[in-house]
Amino acid sequence: MTQPVSRALAPFGTTIFTIMSRRAQERGAINLSQGFPDFEGPEFVKDAAREAIRGQHNQYAPMPGVPALRAAIADRFSRSSGLPCDPDTDVTVTAGCTEAIAASVLGLLNPGDEIVLFEPFYDSYRACVAMAGAAPRVVSLVPSGGSPRAFAFDPAELHAAITPRTRALLLNTPHNPTGKVFARAELERIADCCLRHDLVAITDEVYERLTFDPALPHLHLAALPGMADRTITLSSIGKTFSLTGWKIGWAVAPPRLTAAVRAAHQFLTFAVATPLQHAAAEALRREQEYVPMLLADYRARLGELAPALTSVGFRVIPPAGTYFLMADHSAFGFEDDLAFCNHLIDEVGVAAIPPSVFYQRPELGRSLVRFAFCKKPETIRTGIERLRRLSAAPRG
To answer: What is the residue-level pLDDT of the chain in tens, covering all 396 positions?
Structure first.
């Protein structure tokens, strides 16, 4: 029998998140790999979902999303960006940001088109590009040694990546897996590139509320001069409200780009869970009741994990945002990140992510490992206790 998986998707196999979480469960390892909280989101949001179910909001939602949620998203985006946002023409609710990425890529790109990606990247990016029949043009984020901008790109490499076939650029800030928050000067270089080459920008901003350095806040690329009409801004409630299983995301874009997103969205999912959309609207209206506390908790957990990793021999690259931490594992003498992460699970009892899978050039990530600190304090502390087993002499 011939290979049943399509040629576009066969090269990607099973996502690394599934693999490492399954192995962690099988081996009883502390799961610091997949980026899901091991604690519950706020009760007021869950109460709103229960009320929506009892209120009989259980049939198909409108394809663009429940009006109350679109209004809340538009208001939130306008306040944070300073841009006008029409909930009817500019906002589309999707099944998480992952679907928003797919709808944007599939709605915009034709076979043979190119899109610029910054590596390392969330693994769905390349798969979405492949499904569209397009090609990635990759620019590397490399450790620069300077905190908080510990990963940086070469502007010359960005401009060199663009050809006459390049139509779009996909940017993730705050950035998974590095924890980088793109600074204004970097965003200005990216905006200049988009304007000069007439590119559409797709920005994945799901960690927009999770930044740690007041001097390096999250900024919307869409808010820079000339970018509002050529940017699709994506986000979700999953990371901000610790409700990753709800899969409520959105795309904000001017009408001509919204048309592209909706052209794909209507055939990918059409609409997403109606009662959860009503609850998401309540979440956004009451965001300040939860997010500052969550951010303080994440600062505290990062403040425990980072020095503990340093003490056992990692070179930690401090994150400016997200709930991920990248570290160099070279001191332990393993061949690559996958061998190291398998050792962590099997011999140490901690699961982490080997980030080379997020690179088109895997060699750039083989000395690194990604830890997620979106966990209960006791989970972090147990993980630290186990990681201290690594403090023995490095392997030769």
So the answer is: 567 899 898 888 888 888 888 988 899 999 999 999 999 999 999 999 999 999 999 999 999 999 999 999 999 999 999 999 999 999 999 999 999 999 999 999 999 999 999 999 999 999 999 999 999 999 999 987 544 447 999 999 999 999 999 999 999 999 999 999 999 999 999 999 999 999 999 999 999 999 999 999 999 999 999 999 999 999 999 999 999 999 999 999 999 999 999 999 999 999 999 999 999 999 999 999 999 999 999 999 999 999 999 999 999 999 999 999 999 999 999 999 999 999 999 999 999 999 999 999 999 999 999 999 999 999 999 999 999 988 654 444
End-to-end CA distance of the chain: 45
Query: Which amino acid is located at 212 in the chain?
Result: F
CATH, domain range 10-41+290-390: 3.90.1150.10
CA–CA dist 112, 105 (Å, integer): 13
CA–CA distance, 140 with 202 (Å, rounded to integer)? 17
CA distance 76 to 91: 12
Q: Residue 110: exposed, middle, or buried by beta-carbon count in 10 A (0-12, 13-18, 19+)? A: exposed
Phi, psi of 326 (to 5 degrees): -100, 140
What are the residue boundaries of the structural domains of the chain, listed by start?
A: 10-41+290-390, 61-285
Question: Angle, nearest 10°, between helix axes 255-268 and 96-108?
Answer: 110
d(CA 302, CA 377): 10
Query: Domain 61-285 adopts which CATH fold?
Result: Aspartate Aminotransferase; domain 2 (3.40.640)
Long-range contact set of residues 387-394: C-beta below 8 Å, sequence gap at least 24: 387/308, 387/309, 387/312, 387/348, 387/350, 388/308, 388/312, 389/347, 389/348, 390/312, 390/313, 390/332, 390/348, 391/311, 391/312, 391/313, 394/313, 394/331, 394/332, 394/333
CB half-sphere exposure, 339, CA atoms < 13 A: 10
- Preceding omega of 177 cis (within 30 degrees of 0): yes
Between CA 101 and CA 107 the distance in angstroms is: 10
